Input
Amino acid sequence: MVDALLDIAGLRAGYESTTVLRDIDLRVEEGQLSVVIGPNGHGKTTLLRAISGLVTSSAGRITFAGQDITRMRPEAISARGLVHIPQGDALFPDMTVLENLTLGAFLRRGGRAERSQQLAVVYDIFPRLAERSSQRARTLSGGERRMLALGRGLMADARMLMIDEPSLGLAPVLVDEVYRQIARIAESGMTILLVEENFSRVRDLADRLTLIENGEVRASGTVQEVLADPAVAATYLGIES
Output
């Protein structure tokens, strides 16, 4: 079996006395776009927060690039190239687009020339951000703010992006545009772990699919393998055989 860039085994995590995740196993190989899907409130966001160190795990192990990161602090995990883009925007609203992007490179290795090169990459993927580089983040549209959040994640020295529900709260036409950019990021070779509630948005993008229900893995595999279970396809993905 190929060594996974991210390897999660037996993960249990939650908040105070409430356990949300129970014995989660999940692997993401380098270059994959892996999608976690499932009903709202069943642990998808908690999973990303546990991986990035924002939620403390009570059991299990999380390995990234061959190193155990289970008990690491969030900033140490991010510095190793595992970058978490949370739900919503989490931007600095009174800073400009360029200032927000520059902050994304705060932990990036290398000098100014390398940061400028990466900024050019981000502007190539998101040309609208280049057009609005001097505009304050709070004046952007919802879709533009989501693009800025993704762009800021790319400004880090990332080996893998974790993206939490990029379609949340956006009009369908904006969701289409955001997902076109995510597809471009994936085509560049970036490893992505994506949380999404709407299966139709990720059906043609995902290399692997993990379905979480009540904090447990209900199904996992390629899209075709998951769809091969008629009960899973009908109940969770809205597809009748």
In short: The beta strands are 6-15, 18-28, 33-37, 57-64, 67-68, 82-85, 160-164, 191-196, 208-213, 216-221. The chain has a mean pLDDT of 91.
